[in-house]
């Protein structure tokens, strides 16, 4: 009995230490998966769904749902962080690496920034480098299940090293630009980049 209690206590301590190092400043661990959307959840028929890669690319691309599923798959296992201060530790998503999409479209040397655009009109901006090198995915599964519509299904962008407003839900495409162009929340005072480890929450942080 004593041994069991002590083992449980140490286990909780280890979990707390692990949380302390995994939580960016000002964040708490949330067990659930809150929904944060500005506006209604768009419903998109998979037969009409397309994902576009356009702008400063050698080969503009457009994938149907079936074509996207046929690309080499890739997944993410780790932590996500919302600017409203919840983090979800140890979650998983599956889909395709943005690198795979970029390779198919061949960004021009002048491409430096990206606007992610969505069914429903939401946009968010990122430096192209934040979408390259195994740091970003287009995902349609969460913890082994189809991504629920309220979390961005059919498919969303996932950029887990930045605050979650950069992970555009109901993704319709990526537009490559030679300049930065603030998106929906960035234009309303959110930080332009949104690194949770630097607490880049709002304009001026
Ligand atoms: N298309 C679209 N994507 C979006 C949003 C939105 O309103 N529309 N909200 C963003 C914000 S502010 C957050 S915090 C996350 C929330 O994702 P979740 O609802 O899956 O938790 O989605 C981001 N992606
Ligand atoms: Mo958000």
Number of helical segments?
3
Residue runs with pLDDT of under 50 for 5 or more positions: none
Strand content: 25-35%
Biggest sheet overview: 6 strands, mixed
Number of strands: 11
Helix share bin: 10-25%
Please identify which CATH superfamily of the domain at 45-75 and 91-198 we are dealing with: Oxidoreductase, molybdopterin-binding domain
How far is the N terminus from the C terminus? Answer: 50 Å
Element-level helix/strand string:
HEEEHEEHEEEEEE
- CATH architectural designation of the domain at 45-75 and 91-198: Alpha-Beta Complex
Radius of gyration: 18 Å
Plain-language structure description:
The protein is an alpha+beta fold and 205 residues long. It has a domain of 139 residues: Oxidoreductase, molybdopterin-binding domain (Sulfite Oxidase, Chain A, domain 2, Alpha-Beta Complex), CATH 3.90.420. Helix content is 17%, strand content 30%. The strands form two sheets. Strands 1, 4, 5, 8, 9 and 10 form a six-stranded mixed sheet that branches. Strand 2 and strand 3 form a beta hairpin. The chain binds the ligand Nc1nc2c(c(=O)[nH]1)N[C@H]1C(S)=C(S)[C@@H](COP(=O)(O)O)O[C@H]1N2 and molybdenum atom (MO). The site of molybdenum atom (MO) has 6 residues, from loops.
